[in-house]
Amino acid sequence: MRKLGAETKTARYAMLIDLDRCNGCGACMVACAVENNVPPPQASATPRTGLNWLRVFRLKTGGRDAFIPVMCMQCEDETPCQSVCPQKAVEFDPVTGIVGQIPERCLGCRYCMAACPYQARVFNWRDPQWPAGMEKALNPRVSVRQRGTVEKCNFCHGRWQAALEKAAHDGEEGPVHYTPACAEACPAQAIRFGDLNDEEFAAACHEQGVFRLLDTLGTGPKVFYRTSRAEVREATRGFGEVRRG
Ligand code: SF4
Ligand code: SF4
Predict the structure, then answer these.
(1) Ligand 2 mean position to 5 CA, how many Å?
(2) 8-state DSSP, 145
(3) pLDDT (tens digit, 9 = 90+) per residue, 30-45?
(4) What DSSP state is assigned to residue 200?
């Protein structure tokens, strides 16, 4: 079996989301929740206390509305959430470039939530509850989080692990190829997942019309957006307003 380490080629996984294609259907949100064992909201949950790793927001543009899927941006440079965690419950994986969350280490202080400029993290105010029978359909590759812990998108790390094991079994060399659940589920093919070490993908992430949220903060997000509509680009500048919308 191929092990993580010197013989594993590194990747810098990233997403390129085409806002011209996104129609706000929310299929990505559903696929994300199913893949990652995110429980449905409990009766007392509010928009502030519910759990979501991925949310699709409506953008008011002055013309035709647009939609923007927002998840953890996988910050690369001095990752804000990682830098404040006293428990080392947030880890930047140099093999994948993925910012991971280790729920077993999280003590629930929520420093990371305060530090994240994208409000991409959610807190488990309660233990998870699933409708009767649904617990039998949980994804065995993803741990279930308990009350008092923080969680967030990790680019479907369980899928990466499965792809790594398959590659090792097949004796394949090079970085692992896989697709997160949101990108797979999107009927509009608005979400492209790739490796920034791949020249063609990296070039697509730097084409005209591509941008990142709160880019001037210098967090090095690895979620890129593109649009051909200047008004949509403009509407994303007030990111705080988008989040409250
Ligand atoms: S978007 Fe937030 S949760 Fe994700 S890596 Fe950046 S600071 Fe951390
Ligand atoms: S599944 Fe695709 S089209 Fe639907 S909301 Fe998500 S990104 Fe947009």
Answers:
(1) 35
(2) P
(3) 999 999 999 998 888 8
(4) H
Gap from CA of 91 to ligand 2 centroid (Å): 28
Backbone angles phi, psi at 157, to 5 degrees: -60, -30
Instruction: For tokens 């965690």, name the residue.
Output: 85
Output the furthest CA–CA distance in the chain (Å, rounded): 55
Render pLDDT for 166-208 as a digit per residue (tens, 0 to 9): 999 999 887 899 999 999 999 999 999 999 999 999 999 999 9
Helix (H, G, I), strand (E, B) or coil at 90: strand
Is-above-0.85 flag for pTM? yes
Residue with tokens 């993290």: 121
Express each pLDDT in 138-158 by its tens digit. Answer: 999 999 999 999 999 999 999
Residue 189 near ligand 2, beta carbon < 6 Å: no
CA angle 162, 24, 137 (to 5 degrees): 35
